[in-house]
Amino acid sequence: MQVLQPAGWPKPKGFANGIAAEGRVVFVAGQVAFDTDGNLVGGNFVDQARQALRNIVAVLKEGGAGPEHLTRMTWYVTSVQEYLDCLRDLGAAYREAIGEHYPAMTLVGVTGLMIAGAKLEIEATAVVPPA
Fold first, then answer.
1. Strand residue runs (E) in the chain
2. Residue 131: what pLDDT?
3. How far from 92 is each of 27, 29, 60, 70, CA to CA, in Å?
4. Domain residues of the chain, as ranges?
5. pLDDT band with cut points at 50, 70 and 90 for residue 101
6. List of residues 6+ apart from 72 with CB closer than 8 A
7. Fewest CB atoms within 10 A around its CB: which of 4, 33, 34, 59?
8. 109 beta partners
9. 66 in helix, strand or coil?
């Protein structure tokens, strides 16, 4: 896996501008803060993000991948301001679930999500290198 950082660009904080990778691709559908019983957990943004990230890691594991194989994540949030207001705690929750690996990421503000009460939904792509 190669992080793509064009010369002269400022280094991004918490994400990569691009990733190049070879191998088996694992796609993770949008994950919300569902527990294993399908109940939405976490009343605040950080708690919901933590659970959604844990769900991504669980799906990756099923595909023989881990957080270190993530190449791309897209975050859909119902409040960009709420996201910005909790960046410090959100960063800690991210590192708890994903570690110090920062794939290419996009954040999209949306007016709503399919799951009532969900504050965010995260989809991901990983590439497992050839053995």
1. 2-4, 18-20, 24-31, 70-77, 104-109, 120-128
2. 82
3. 24, 23, 20, 18
4. 2-128
5. very high
6. 19, 103, 104, 105, 106, 124, 125
7. 4
8. 77
9. coil
Identity (one letter) of the amino acid at 53?
L
Which tokens hold the place of 43?
A: 């009343």
Token pair 């194989």 is found at: 69
Q: How confident is the model at residue 21 (pLDDT cuts 50, 70, 90)?
A: very high
> Does 48 have pLDDT greater than 90?
yes
CATH H-level, domain 2-128: superfamily:
RutC-like (3.30.1330.40)
C-alpha to C-alpha distance for 73 and 58, rounded to whole angstroms: 15
CB within 8 A of 71, min separation 6: which ones?
1, 19, 21, 103, 104, 125, 126, 127
Give the whole-number percent of the chain exceeding pLDDT 90.
Answer: 96
Residue with tokens 């659970």: 51
* Identity of residue 87: L
Residues in the chain: 131
